[in-house]
């Protein structure tokens, strides 16, 4: 089915299609929301009123009389945004509400709390609009390619690590031989993000891949010796660096290489600056000089009235729109397993990261630095990578087209095309 979803004459048809979508039904099953979709950001621009209740859109109409409008959340976007968002594959900065907000193409009024709490049904409704606008067919989920009984080669272990006087029981997996490659997961997630990389023989033939869950994440529990349940979890740069120093020490790693994504991408820069001899090279998947915290991120993700589903969906908006749907939801699945408040606590470090005045001090001959930012990553953009190089020409930047913030999960073969030349360069100069 294909029709113009912004045509007022198609409003009832659009409502019926949205209500027939299984994902929307699931996402909105406990929703009661008066939503306004604005075509234009002005007060008198075109507006569509959508009333959602109990898994159904009960009303969808283009407003002509604004006298009795009830608005819980209003998503008002420029005509340029709608034109690009409704393309089969949206342009950069037009793939989601949050992406549009970051560049001034979208404005949200009403309750930001409700936007986070009900982001899934709101965004799914808009995605269905794109599907119908273009007559898209949902892609089949990719298969693993392995037969029943296949056992992956990595092994998992626990190691006890003392960081700043507190002992942590840390889970890690490893596979391969050669140069140690320590992989750092993103904020609020865990090491399963690297499941493709750790089983890739092209990498494990040269590198001993080590993927850990830092404490409070994945299989690494909080420390037993403190009342962590009575403390507000906040990740700091100092602790993060100290953890990597201690982890490398207990494993006896020498001349290791670091690979981190998101908060781990920013950490690549902090490690190279503060501990240049810990790793011979640092690779950041998503890195920047630093950004102030957008008001819709950390504060609301730590709000007890917003389920951590809000953090999951916020992070999902950082993925590229052209990736398989199953991969997008694998990103989300990892976030759904995170403990409440952990993603928000990690994000405090992500947004406190600031090398605006110190990036030029990174000695890239002592510790080589490589930054790779995804095209659809509105958190760490191509411009962020270019700004780093402008501050320090020794940093090597690689823009990753067609990828977002979670490249290792979104499309590992695509990431590999960017990553392998870097790993080959490092192994060739291994010191």
From TrEMBL:
Cross-referenced Pfam families: Abhydrolase_1 (PF00561)
Sequence ranges assigned to domain AB hydrolase-1 in this UniProt record: 180-295
Gene3D superfamilies, A to Z: alpha/beta hydrolase
Signal peptide: none
Record-linked PANTHER family: HYDROLASE, ALPHA/BETA FOLD FAMILY PROTEIN (PTHR43433), NON-HEME CHLOROPEROXIDASE-RELATED (PTHR43433:SF4)
Protein name: AB hydrolase-1 domain-containing protein
Organism, as annotated: Desulfitobacterium hafniense (strain Y51)
């Amino acid at each position: 089915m294909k029709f113009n979803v912004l045509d007022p004459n198609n409003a009832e048809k659009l409502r019926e299609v949205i209500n027939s979508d299984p994902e929307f039904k699931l996402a909105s099953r406990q929703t009661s929301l008066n939503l306004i979709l604005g075509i234009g950001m002005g007060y008198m621009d075109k507006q569509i009123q959508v009333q959602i209740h109990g898994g159904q859109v009960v009303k969808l109409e283009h407003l002509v009389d604004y006298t009795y409008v009830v608005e819980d959340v209003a998503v008002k976007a420029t005509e340029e945004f709608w034109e690009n968002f409704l393309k089969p594959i949206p342009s950069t900065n037009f793939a989601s509400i949050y992406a549009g907000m970051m560049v001034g193409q979208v404005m949200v009024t009403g309750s930001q709390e409700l936007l986070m709490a009900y982001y899934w049904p709101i965004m799914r409704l808009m995605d269905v609009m794109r599907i119908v606008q273009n007559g898209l067919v949902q892609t089949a989920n990719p298969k693993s390619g392995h037969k029943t009984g296949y056992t992956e080669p990595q092994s998992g272990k626990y190691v006890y690590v003392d960081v700043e006087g507190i002992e942590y029981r840390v889970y890690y997996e490893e596979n391969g031989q050669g140069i140690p490659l320590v992989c750092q997961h993103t904020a609020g997630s865990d090491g399963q993000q690297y499941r493709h990389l750790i089983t890739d023989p092209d990498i494990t033939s040269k590198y001993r891949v080590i993927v850990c869950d830092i404490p409070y994440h994945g299989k690494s529990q909080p420390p037993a010796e403190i009342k962590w349940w009575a403390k507000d979890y906040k990740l700091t740069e100092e602790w993060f660096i100290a953890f990597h120093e201690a982890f490398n020490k207990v494993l006896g790693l020498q001349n290791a290489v670091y690979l981190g994504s998101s908060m781990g991408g920013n950490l690549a820069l902090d490690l190279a600056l503060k501990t240049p001899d810990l790793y011979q090279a640092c690779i950041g998947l998503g890195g920047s000089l630093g950004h102030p915290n957008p008001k819709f991120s950390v504060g609301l993700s730590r709000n007890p009235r917003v389920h951590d589903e809000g953090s999951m969906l916020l992070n999902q908006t950082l993925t590229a729109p052209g990736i398989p749907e199953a991969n997008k939801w694998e990103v989300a699945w990892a976030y759904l397993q995170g403990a409440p408040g952990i993603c928000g606590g990690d994000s405090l470090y992500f947004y406190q990261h600031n090398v605006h005045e110190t990036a030029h001090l990174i000695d890239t001959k002592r510790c080589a630095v490589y930054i790779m930012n995804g095209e659809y990553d509105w958190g760490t953009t191509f411009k962020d990578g270019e700004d780093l190089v402008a501050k320090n020409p020794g940093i090597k930047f690689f823009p990753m087209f067609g990828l977002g913030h979670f490249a290792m999960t979104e499309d590992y073969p695509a990431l590999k095309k960017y990553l392998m030349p870097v790993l080959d360069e490092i192994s060739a100069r291994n010191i």
